[in-house]
Amino acid sequence: MVTIVPEDTRPITINGTSITVEPGNNAKYWGLVENGRWEPATFQAINLLVDASSTYIDVGAWIGGTVLYSATKAAKVIAFEPDPEALSILKTNIAANPALATKIDLIEGGLGIFDGTAALYNNSPGDSGSSLVSRFGYKNTVEQEKFADIKLTDGRRFLEGLDMSKVSLIKMDIEGGEYDLIPHIADILKTHAPSLHISFHPFNISPSESATTNAYLQMSRSGALLDCLSGYQYIYVEKDGQLVANGRQLILDQMREKGAVYDAAVFTNRRILS
Known about the structure:
alpha/beta, Rossmann fold, 9 helices
């Protein structure tokens, strides 16, 4: 199926690198990206950990900002996006960059703990919050509506089929799904130690009506998740738009204070900052 590129595409520049996008209803987002105000530490992580010999994996690609930017750096990009509305925009943006499109393998679905079909939830399909988790609890816990059945690929089977020696960075931004996926692939991460960029969403783990119970479960599961990543030598966390060298405790502190670590928590065995 050929994706027709709209006429209203335009170039934007990210850290001096030009890509072409179709702004549409996401013009505000692309403006923030271009002005360095949307997750600048995420792009910093890509700059530091992705090079012309490497494979970059983007789990939760949304409409393509990190996918297209990383494709200007990497030998190969593998992108997962399950939300049908975001996927349509992502395809358009990839097609608008034919020189980069040849590097990008787009997988229309999610990465999870089994092969099959799963429900996708969001009260606003197409925004960046679509999740395999039905509850969304950033400010107020709400039940999200199922709006699609999507294809799910078993993360363990998928990674076992790759040449992991070439995978330099895996970015994961899946709105709470990380709490299941990371333990599922923990042994592969321990063996091959690709660098990771993870956005944590503990507020989506809210199974109880009790705020106290939820807070306990969120922090205990976050601690267990970090234990799965204990083999990584360096942890870098976003602070004031830049990566800083920190550790496990700062991540937990940010979760308590902000409810999440959105922009960047990077786990690596490479010393990337002096």
